[in-house]
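Sanity check. The docking grid for guanosine-5'-triphosphate depends on where the pocket ends up, so I'm generating a full predicted complex first rather than guessing from homology. Inputs follow.
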Amino acid sequence: MSSDSLILSVFYNDASFIFVLSGFIYQSPSRNDSITSIRYRTLLMELSCRAPYLIFLNGFPMKTQAKNSVPVLNKKKQRKTLIIVPTYNEIENLENVYGQITNAAKACHILIIDDGSPDGTGKLADKIAKKDKRVEVMHRAGKLGLGTAVTAGFHFALDRRYELILTIDADLSHNPSYIPQMISLMDEYDLVIGSRYIRDGGMVNWSLPRLLISLFTNYMLKKILGMEMKDCSGGFKCYTAELIRKINVDRVISPGYVFYVEILYRAVRAGARVKEIPIIFVNRRQGKSKLHIREVIGYAVSVFRLRWLTLIGRL
Ligand SMILES: Nc1nc2c(ncn2[C@@H]2O[C@H](COP(=O)(O)OP(=O)(O)OP(=O)(O)O)[C@@H](O)[C@H]2O)c(=O)[nH]1
Ligand SMILES: [Mg+2]
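Predicted complex below; grid placement will be based on this.
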């Protein structure tokens, strides 16, 4: 562990400890408290535990490279892997993310799924694919949603008999240098998550409201869907094709960002072996976020819908 990450972990754990302790001292529930009030306090307490860590990280010049020295992939052993890169208006990032992915994982193939980006991302993707045989491009008519894009990518991978499928954002929030580590764990696991919220993980340049929304989302996923993983909502994940086949992605009901949560939820219910590895998530430096209020509302609705379908035994 680097000294930076050591300091951060110590800070995180100490801050959490102090906040939890003060939470217990000043907010310890009494017998007269209602369940709702206790739940509400617990939620506040959990958020306050993480807040100092986040505030600290947001202003801290941190390394954005993978911390662990990662073994170079052994080409002979490596399973046939497809990296899915969904894009919508990522013209400033595409060339860069392509370069970094091919640098980190030379033997992998890349599928760029572009939803008719008005900024010409699709054309740039075609240019890249023309000069590199490892790259393919899927063009879709318009912005049909992240979930349906990745679903199309899963079908593409299954049809072409890829053994591993990795999803990564195009905005360089997910550092491709973690890919070899994720792939090397796939012999033991069915799903590997690049996680911001475990020890040594973190984020850089995220606004505090955005961070709190993300933490709150993961907290609610734990409470509503019983998800045990610390970071369920991220899009940096590696799956075995076998798992994706087992889940049957055609049954997935979430078209937007919540898609990744639903896949994970279904994977856990299907008995998948899941591993989280720490990543440093870097807020996009170029381009705009596609996460709008409509997506956020759709997200919440889908989570409750998943819970409901589970309760009535239809999932
Ligand atoms: N094909 C396709 N890709 C999409 C769509 N919406 C988002 N994306 C891509 O999905 C990835 C994640 O989207 P972002 O806008 O970065 O969402 P985010 O990471 O939650 O938001 P930021 O933190 O603001 O970057 C990026 O590579 C986007 O270009 C879509 O409707 N279709
Ligand atoms: Mg992003």
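Relevant for the grid: The radius of gyration is 20 Å.
Also worth noting: Residues 1-27, 58-72 have pLDDT under 50 and may be disordered.
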